[in-house]
Design goal:
Blueprint: H1 6-10, H2 15-21, H3 23-36, H4 38-43, E1 48-49, E2 52-56, E3 59-62, H5 73-88, H6 93-117, H7 130-140, H8 142-156, H9 165-168, H10 172-195, H11 199-209, H12 212-229, H13 246-277, H14 282-286, H15 299-331, H16 337-354, H17 356-371, H18 380-388
């Protein structure tokens, strides 16, 4: 096998070079802002009247006077919650199908970012603050925000050759804490936002879902502190104690798969449910086609356009960021261009059958295999296997 030369390994590793390389991510953010048409949404008539969101006598909910205990938070959240009203109150039924899938996928992608933040190499960089950036994405739109986060993450993290194995590995014990918290604080509210028995209950769950990244983060640090206090502290380098052990590597990857599996199953299940149970086509649910005349200039119509484009750009930027990460692995000889192409085809296939976010999670796991102790070309496990043969 050919070992990359130092010059080729360092090619593109400078911060300026990585910034130029990642400019398409910034282009995606600008394109998302244009297509989501946020300015026209601000000009559309607001459905809030007299402290209520009303679409008809049977589709009306009362806004809570005070939900959060922090001053100034409720007015901001009220504007965000209003954006969910067309789908949760059944004014726009195709959007209801789209939003259940979209929001569930956001939980899976949020877990991936929490796992990225658990790397020692992520401390101090953008990937080390998933709560901050995911909260911004929740408030102003992931389609415009996440490409910028991915850009910063790609530019400011250390090149692969400069990072020892222990700083690359994720603390898998902490990963299960995130999964444990996301299920009740994200997945359950999303389901009840669209399936609670009354519209008022759905509205309450919509409020509760807001700021879930903050609640997950607080719960994470509380539970982590409790576990450490009780003597179950797991050092961040524990999983790196045997970096050359194939058995240890398999144990690490198995833990990551188990941590991701519940949210993968939820996203895949909801995607399949949409495919099989919805009376609307995938084109009607997910593609931002031109609005009919009756929805032009309305809040419902503008939200439909915004949320469809939002989903598209969240997935597109996530996949493009993954592509940059895989190309870094190719640069240091851990994967081939053909291997990356095969994984892209795998994502397309899985995306069609199980949903785009499930596809992202699966190829992320494969990338983790190449990154940490896998047997792909260029890894120590691969070389040891060759020597054994």
């Amino acid at each position: 096998m050919t070992t990359p030369s130092p010059s080729s390994a360092n090619n593109g590793s400078s911060r300026a070079g990585r910034a130029i390389q990642a400019l398409p991510l910034l282009f995606l953010s600008v394109l998302a802002f244009y297509n989501m048409d946020i300015l026209h949404l601000m000009l559309a008539p607001n459905p809030i009247q007299d402290g209520k969101i009303t679409y008809s006598p049977t589709r009306s909910v009362t806004l809570p006077e005070k939900f959060h205990l922090i001053p100034g938070v409720d007015p901001v959240i009220r504007n965000v919650v209003t954006g969910f009203a067309p789908s949760t109150l059944e004014e726009d039924k195709p959007s209801a199908w789209q939003m259940v899938v979209f929001l569930s996928d956001c939980g899976l992608l949020h877990l991936l970012w929490c796992l990225e933040g658990e790397r020692g190499a992520s401390r101090g960089g953008p990937a080390g603050f998933p709560t901050l950036f995911q909260t911004l994405a929740q408030l102003v739109g992931g389609g415009t925000t996440l490409p910028i986060v991915y850009f910063l993450s790609h530019v400011f993290r250390s090149p692969l050759p400069a990072r020892p194995t222990y700083s690359i590995r994720i603390n898998t014990h902490h990963a299960f804490i995130y999964t444990f918290l996301l299920l009740p604080l994200h997945s359950l509210p999303v389901w009840l936002m669209y399936h609670a028995s009354t519209l008022q209950d759905r509205h309450w769950w919509t409020w509760l879902w807001q700021l879930y990244p903050v609640r997950v983060s607080l719960g994470y640090y509380i539970l982590r502190t409790l576990f450490e206090t009780r003597g179950r502290k797991q050092a961040s380098t524990a999983t790196a104690s045997k970096p050359n052990s194939i058995h240890h590597s398999n144990h690490y990857h198995r833990h990551l798969l188990l941590a991701l599996l519940p949210l993968i199953a939820i996203s895949a299940g909801l995607w399949l449910h949409t495919l099989l149970a919805s009376s609307y086509s995938l084109y009607e649910i997910f593609y931002p086609s031109p609005l009919p005349d009756e929805l032009l200039g309305t809040f419902t119509g503008q939200m439909q356009v915004l949320l469809k484009w939002d989903y598209i750009f969240v997935v597109a930027s996530s996949l493009l960021w993954w592509g940059y990460e895989m190309w870094d692995l190719k640069r240091v000889g851990r994967v081939t261009a053909r291997g990356i192409a095969v994984l892209v085809v795998m994502w397309v296939g899985m995306g069609m059958v199980l949903g785009p976010a499930v596809g992202v999670a699966v190829v992320w796991l494969v990338r983790e295999w190449y990154l940490v102790g896998g047997s792909g070309p260029g890894t120590e496990g691969f070389e040891k296997g060759k020597e054994g043969r």
